[in-house]
Amino acid sequence: MGFMQGSLGLGMLLGPVISALVYGAMNYWGTFFFYGCTILVFGGGAACLLPARLNKDGVGRKAQLDLHAEQALRDKQKAEINPQF
Fold first, then answer.
1. Nearest to residue 31, comparing CAs of 17, 42, 20?
2. Residue 58 phi/psi, 5° resolution?
3. What gap in Å lies between CA 63 and CA 53, rounded to an integer?
4. Residues 33, 70: one domain?
5. CA distance 12 to 5
6. Domain range for residue 60?
7. What is the pTM of this model?
8. pLDDT tens, 6-52?
9. Of 45, 14, 12, 18, whose CA–CA distance to 31 is shortest?
10. Hey, is 82 helix, strand or coil?
């Protein structure tokens, strides 16, 4: 969370400065094109670098919940057999 907030703050501080420099060199259309390409490059890079475990498709979550339920059932059965457990 702190990294995200830091990135947001840095972008809000440097964005207008960089935009003024790019606009001075490329005018309106060039600035639009420059930032569009920048978003594509960094967005594509971020998408490639994110680990697959962050995908929340539901299958992994259900399997994880089932595993926890099985473990809880085994613990309960052990406790019934051996009350000191």
1. 20
2. 95, -30
3. 13
4. no
5. 11
6. 56-85
7. 0.50
8. 989 998 999 899 999 999 999 999 999 999 999 999 999 888 888 77
9. 18
10. coil
